[in-house]
Design goal:
413 residues, alpha/beta, Rossmann fold, 2 domains, 7-stranded parallel beta sheet, 6-stranded parallel beta sheet, 13 strands, globular
């Protein structure tokens, strides 16, 4: 079997590297062969050192890498142009590399894969990642009910029906796809749930606290930490409001925010919310420094706006926090996280963004921290068991194996 993996994100981007390339390398080590087609942004292609590094890694795992340039403008038209170019190039790859299965990561690659199935008869995996059309509407990118929204939902339904297998990130969105009545042709066996996984060898803690220089002088504080961006679907104000309640209940509480790029919005919001400069640390860190920060802190925070599309969300930072031994505080309505936290007692869930709900979740968190001396180890074990790359790779392998069964059976007859 040889698969073609298509992504509208580039292999040079950190997101695809951790949530796509990492799986392919694991699958390659388990006997699966892949070609990949990615749409690379020019700013990442300019990093020649990273380009050479990724190329060498892929060659070492017998993965053939094909590239197209991603186009952003003119809006909408550029996407259709990329789909047309991607279909032609992917068709060439399918024939040249004798591809059996096309694995499409998200919607644009799935359109390409759908056309390949129609024209060349190849099976395809629709790796949804999330409810993209609804995300765009909730994020204000398109209007719900407008032509683009209706077209997007129509294409989504066709992709779901025409795919050989569907991958979603959460059990909650699987249930919606099956039982909402919007997708009557779907069968349960066709849909597989694979949450966002992380390298649990990289994201780990040693059991001995090593203080990052940025956190100098905070050894005796109770440290809440948030890592990553704060745009569109995140609820920064809710998180800061929660921290203000935490500060009243635990006077030694301190907030650490590690966010890349321009942090002026965070600074303005901290000021607007009345968070004193002595009570927070705002900065950024290289990827290889993040595990040390997480291991040093006491609890990880994840606050999203409560929207429909968040039911399909599996936050990468959720797995990263747990792998580094951090209990997690998250609001309800974010994928399967509430179920995971309550079932395994490794954090607290906020039902609503208001004071009494903050107090309840904080009491639960402090009780966990005070009464469970092995809480870090339990968080870590849960991450390794449910959110490791090894686990994710095995789940993907099972899909490829199942899709190959009919062909194998046919050859035996």
């Amino acid at each position: 079997m040889r698969g073609l993996f298509i992504s509208y994100n580039g292999a040079l981007e950190p997101l695809l590297y951790s949530q796509g390339i990492a799986y392919l390398k694991k699958l390659s080590d388990r006997g699966k062969s892949f070609s990949i087609l990615t749409f690379e942004k020019k700013k990442f292609l300019a990093d020649k050192q990273r380009y050479r590094k990724i190329s060498a890694e892929l060659r070492a795992h017998n993965i053939r890498w094909y590239r197209l340039v991603y186009h952003k403008r003119p809006a909408v038209i550029s996407t259709f142009m990329d789909i047309a170019c991607g279909f032609i190039y992917a068709g060439y790859i399918v024939v040249k590399d004798k591809i059996d299965i096309v694995h499409a990561r998200s919607y644009v690659p799935a359109v390409i894969a759908f056309l390949l199935r129609f024209c060349l008869g190849r099976k395809f995996i629709f790796d949804m990642r999330g409810m993209m059309v609804d995300e765009y509407a909730e994020g204000g990118i398109i209007k719900k009910g407008a032509l683009l929204f209706t077209l997007g939902k129509t294409i989504e339904a066709r992709l779901l029906k025409g795919s050989s297998a569907v991958v979603v990130l959460t059990e909650r969105i699987k249930d919606i796809l099956l039982y909402s009545g919007d997708f009557p042709a779907l069968e349960a066996a066709k849909i597989r749930v694979i949450p966002c996984c992380v390298d649990t060898e990289f994201f780990s803690f040693s059991g001995v606290k090593v203080r990052p220089p940025l956190l100098s002088g905070l050894d005796d504080r109770f440290l809440f930490i948030y890592t990553g961006s704060v745009g569109t679907w995140y609820n920064l104000e809710g998180m800061l409001d929660f921290f203000k309640t935490a500060k009243k209940m635990k006077t030694d509480a301190h907030l650490v925010i590690l966010s890349p790029g321009d942090r002026s919005y965070i600074e303005l919001t901290l000021k607007k919310m009345g968070i004193h400069s002595r009570d927070f640390t705002l900065g950024e860190a290289e990827l290889n420094q993040i595990p040390a920060f997480l291991s040093f802190c006491d609890a990880g925070l994840i606050f999203y706006k409560q929207t429909f599309s968040r039911l399909a969300c599996s936050p990468v930072k959720f797995a990263e926090y747990l792998a580094c031994g951090l209990p997690v505080v998250i609001n309800s309505g974010v994928g399967d996280t509430e179920m995971v936290l309550r079932k395994n007692a490794v954090g607290a869930v906020i039902s609503e963004f208001k004071g009494n709900c903050y107090e309840k979740s904080l009491s639960e968190l402090f009780e966990l921290k005070n009464n469970n001396a092995r809480l870090k180890e339990e968080c870590r074990r849960l991450a390794v068991r449910n959110f490791s790359l090894e686990k994710g790779a095995l789940l993907y392998k099972a899909i490829f194996d199942d899709l190959c069964l009919p062909a194998a059976a046919g050859k035996k007859q």
